């Protein structure tokens, strides 16, 4: 049995992306789910499955109560922060393909900027976690610092520079500048501005780090068959995969033989290409998780777009621009649009497949989406019907 | 002259000596007559180690730190501060700052930290507009 | 709903207090007192020519003075419809008798000119709690002030105070210090490591079955499946495999910037720790380092790193 082609995304919804939503996380979740159902042309009573992140404060039952969803036959949560993003859609696709549910909504809602900020030192994360006790007490207590440790070794091994990281930020912000929904709409940056931005955790600068946002995104999944009767062109799920690698930790997989790759993303890549029968050359748009710029380069390598250590050369000559060989994050990514734990990237992939994106790439057949990096992760390939 | 601002610019460190005269004169100039800002005996009786700087003065010092650096033509649009350790009489209050955000309309956000021997007295941001 | 929450809802529902007019219009003597005391040398407040040049069209008041104009003064009393006063009374009654201001966020819509007469209103935004804080259990009370000249809003302020019940031990400074460091969680599988650091030993887990060295440790050997972990005592020397210079945000118990190094020990395992005794700019991958044991308190000793003597740093 294969999930490929069995299910499709038929609705996407979101709240505005802000720095202070002024309302509860549950209300954000409920608004995004309702918006996504409206987009799909479905009613809350059509929904029988809900999936979210373990980190989400809104339980499936709370969301169901607010929406008036009467009965749920499938509900599930995924661990590991942003690594869960594409896996929520994978869960939904599996549930639909196996008949466990007919219409599943995936959602993520948080007041990440005005409420609990991930970018601050997570003192609470260390308490009670033996894994975290090898890093937090030693002073390594923020996501940026944890990625910086990796980035330094990557620079040492492959000759990459801070400017190479900066090129990712520049292209994301360039795309955000022409996306009216993006926080950084009409605010592009130059490589010089990247280079003069302050250090956060060397070798990472402020402009290597994604923003912090309040907001919510929801994604509606149903069978490909039913999708064809709904109001929007289906974004068919060609592949959906999770991945964890050898000696895996959350953000601190520092004890593997090599510290320059993301083997968990390699696991995802293998599964995506196998399920879809596609390869890197078939990808028309790449929505790659970009909480920190260095991991975008490494993902290009793990996903097979270029050789190890070569990403900095691969991205030269406008490769990632909207009219380049591999348009990257046309919505502006999490550096430019908003940080909604990767769920806004899935919504963008759906818009690219539908042909309705603010920065629409021409003739899109397949879009690749990835989830959080440095953690056990996930990925999707969405395609036209 | 008004300075040209760039993202990432650091402001020079500035020290303010919070002498008792400073604590008291600034409290009175901001019309804050609470005893803990001018009467040491009462301040100690209430559990403080000495009289301490009032909030309106802290707000003023944060504004001054940024405009002294940015120049008289910089327009102050907002001062947001979070208060930490008290700044007691006889403390040296050390200010540090950096330009952390830039918007296209000439608006900049400067992050400011004011530190005493007890720790951070104030952490905040000042939003200024610099005419092109 | 608790009584505090009920009262908060009632006070918030009453909305804005009536506008209260400042004692004086914006005036030069009060501005001069203020700039003298604060030490603000910006000439737009005192020199008409400079004010003109900056585009103000005349002398203006320092924006940060906005609250000064409407302070109650030496014998001031809160007006009867003041929501902050009402909320403070409710919390006093509930036993939350102490107060400390935590945030003041002021937005200035325009500069004020001499002679303008401002009025202020206050409304209660929200009351959140009870929260456990370092000072004791308390409620965060947020109010919003709006300053008007006539009908025009000229400035706003969001102001937050913590109204708290003082902790049993007042000013728990002694408690604040250990709380300032992040402590490891220790269990059956990891206690040998922390017992070692307390004795000045850097211990590496060694499988009692196949001899595999492993850090971080775990209960079952991933190579041979044995559940007989033992340990050896490392020589405590190695090289920097990677490192981070941490600048932002601030980390409990540490002054920034500081360096955290991932060290590859001569025995072959890697371990994180703070690297001291060297300027951040001088750190490089491959730097020879050795372990130093830094005692935090009787219960915790941290392994840290320093450049190895004669290591060619």
From TrEMBL, chain A:
This is Lipid-transfer protein. InterPro entries: Thiolase, Thiolase-like, Thiolase_C_2, Thiolase_N. It holds the Pfam family Thiolase_C_1. It comes from the Bacteria. Residues 15-224 form the Thiolase N-terminal domain. GO terms for molecular function: acyltransferase activity, transferring groups other than amino-acyl groups. Residues 254-375 form the Thiolase C-terminal domain.
UniProtKB/TrEMBL annotation, chain B:
This is MaoC family dehydratase. The lineage of its organism: Bacteria, Bacillati, Actinomycetota, Actinomycetes, Pseudonocardiales. It comes from the Bacteria. InterPro entries: HotDog_dom_sf.
Automatic annotation (TrEMBL), chain C:
InterPro entries: ChsH2_C, ChsH2_Znr, FAS1-like_DH_region, HotDog_dom_sf, NA-bd_OB-fold, Thioester_dehydratase-like. Residues 24-156 form the FAS1-like dehydratase domain. Residues 194-228 form the ChsH2 rubredoxin-like zinc ribbon domain. It comes from the Bacteria. Transmembrane segments: none annotated. Signal peptide: none annotated. It holds the Pfam family zf-ChsH2. Residues 235-293 form the ChsH2 C-terminal OB-fold domain. This is OB-fold domain-containing protein. It comes from Umezawaea endophytica.
